[in-house]
Amino acid sequence: LAKTTQPISMDSYEGQEVNITCSHNNIATNDYITWYQQFPSQGPRFIIQGYKTKVTNEVASLFIPADRKSSTLSLPRVSLSDTAVYYCLVGDIGNAGNMLTFGGGTRLMVKP
Amino acid sequence: GAGVSQTPSNKVTEKGKYVELRCDPISGHTALYWYRQSLGQGPEFLIYFQGTGAADDSGLPNDRFFAVRPEGSVSTLKIQRTERGDSAVYLCASSWGGSGNEQFFGPGTRLTVL
Q: How far, rounded to the nearest angstrom, does the alpha carbon of residue B92 sit from its chain's CA centroid?
C-alpha cells in the first residue's frame, strides 16, 4: 500500500501562497494523487488530482516531480476561508484499494 | 442539482440498540462509499458499492456493521448492538465510475451512543 505522510499542521497569513507537501515513497505505477479539503462539520471536498508534472485548476496547482515520490499542493493567495484540513490520497483510480485511505491530513490555519 | 444527502443529521441512541443511517447519492452516480470519522481524525473507509454490489467491504470493523444498496441508488448503513466506540460522524460519498474518481460527500450523520 502506498502510504502518505503530510505535516500535521501549517500556519499562513492572508494573501500568501501556501504549499503543502505529501510524501508517498511507495507510489505505484498506476497510482494517481488526489487532494481533498475539509471544513469543520462538512464532508471532504475534491480539490485536484494528477499523475505527473503539473496540474492546475481554478482553485489550486499540483506539482509532481519526475520520481512521483512526493507531491505539493499549492494554494495561491490564501484567504481566511481556506482554513481547513487538507488530505492527500494516493491510489489506482481503477481499484478501490488505498485510494480510500485519507490519513490524518494537514490542518491549515490562515491568519489575518 | 442536489448533492449527496444523509439522514438523520444527528442520531442519539443507547448502547445495545440498532441504528440505520441513510444515504441518497447524486442521481446517476454508480459508486457509493461509506466512511466514519472520529474527532480530529481523517475519514476511515468502511465500504464501497459499485451499483448494487459491495465492491470492497474491507473497512467494516466487525459483523455488527452492514450496508445495503438494493437498487443501486439509496444506501443504508446498519449497525447492530451499538457500542460507545461507534460514536462518530458517518460520511457517505458518491462518484461516477470507479473509486478514484472525484467523490462528492454528504454532510454526514453524527451518531452518539450513550
A: 5
